[in-house]
Specification:
mainly alpha, two-stranded antiparallel sheet, 5 helices
């Protein structure tokens, strides 16, 4: 099974579409580690740069945008972006958990509201 297929399998399991009795956090960590190793095996850590990977991330974001606009399935696009983010995190000695925890600390107490489809922080509302 390819890494892409394995990631799709994890997404399926995490979404609850499959009632297999597994621990979701263990599976997610397993697949993150598979993706990290995939990057190392293909020299995408030492052989690429953050700039290269950021360009790839923007390419994948474009595909996500296209599929959102067309009303198509976006699970592959989100997964592809996660693969690239894992690469960037790995090359900077970070984990996705570290990054998500930092982001959560930044937003957990944030208040505001949506205005014309844009979230406006409470401090910026006047």
């Amino acid at each position: 099974m390819s890494v892409h297929d394995q990631i799709a399998r994890v997404n399926q399991l995490l979404s609850g579409r499959n009632q297999t009795n597994i621990h979701a956090n263990d599976d997610l960590e397993k697949f993150v580690n598979l993706v990290r190793q995939w990057h190392h095996d293909r020299n995408l850590i030492e052989g690429a740069s953050d700039k290269d990977q950021f360009c790839k991330l923007m390419q994948e974001a474009g595909e996500l945008s296209d599929n959102i606009c067309k009303g198509k399935d976006i699970s592959d696009d989100i997964g592809d972006m996660m693969v690239v983010l894992i690469n960037i995190a790995e090359r900077n000695n970070l984990t996705l958990k570290d990054c998500l925890m930092k982001a959560w600390d930044d937003i957990k107490d944030r208040k505001g509201k949506m205005v014309d489809g844009v979230f406006i922080k409470e401090a910026d509302l006047s």
